[in-house]
Design goal:
Helices cover about 30% and strands about 25% of the residues. With about 375 residues, it is an alpha/beta fold. The chain is elongated. The N terminus is likely disordered.
Length: about 375
Amino acid sequence: MMTQATLGTKVFSLDRFPLDQINRSLQAWDSADEYLIDYVNEHHPESEHILILNDSFGALSCYFISQGKQCTTVSDSYIADQATLHNIEQNQLEKTLLNQLNSLSTIEGEFDLVLIKLPKNLGYLAHQLASISQSVRLKTPVIAAGKTKDIHNSTSANFEKFIGPTKTSLAVKKSRLVISNLTKTAQPSPYPIEWPLEKTTFSIFNHANVFSRDSLDIGARFFANYLPHGQKPLDVVDLGCGNGVIGLQTLQTLASAKLTFIDESFMAIASAKLNVEKNLAEKIEQCQFVQGDCLSDLATQSQDLILCNPPFHQLQAVTDHIARQMFEDSHRVLRSGGELRIVGNRHLDYHEQLKHLFGNCRLLGSNKKFVVLSAKKR
């Protein structure tokens, strides 16, 4: 899942990097990064310690570290963290100027400036702004950047609620800035939230950046009709587990199974663990929770069954390479006779990919929107 795009050898001149030499779909920065850098250079060049949130592949970190700035980053993504480290190394920058925190860490430090790449998830933005209000000194500039199409009245409303008076910039290359200064007193995050899982006695807890955080998503709802049953002590993976609702239900239908929950999101893994603890505490010893890049941390031929609802985006980028890697990793990790069972949108060509990789693919169920597919390792 790791992007292969890096910033090149001169991160301090993003606009001069020869973009025709890289895969544009994996470009490690965008016009919002460039706009943010230009604004900081013009209005806050004296800032020495910068707090950066959601720096997808390290573009902002690399640039400001190249200028001798101390950077503390906050990310919910294991892959984003690894990509940032990779790009720091590739550009031979000073690692000691980088301090990485995850999305559930307490933010500590004296910051001159806060920079945010706006997430699409407004709940996650609210959580992050609440965290800033609790940890950053008053009057600190807070500047966010994103695509113009993703900045709405609700975006500014969140800044007004948690940070202070807010304005937006003119659009440049289809990107825009949200500009504020921290004047509000510390406010708590509204997350995690709790909701009842339909047709069960479970209560589901979700941290802010988990997909479909307010209710069961429609893909998982359909997939739940095709979960395995039995008493065999199988080794099972809930791959890309999110809040762990599929693995949680599987712990009921496969009573003796050992479940491994895997996701690249810190908040997803924390949610999955919390949901097992709150709903099936007696089965917590049957579970392990792994944050990582697909199945890279699991041994070859170590699993009997992998359940997966593949995502079709990496951070802000829409892509099918994540699903492909999930399928390839599953083929490696499954024992002979083991099964990969997935749910996906009907219009995606997952059945063709599975046939090519496994030599077989069986349709277990379908509706107007989704298909559930099974492929077995021969």
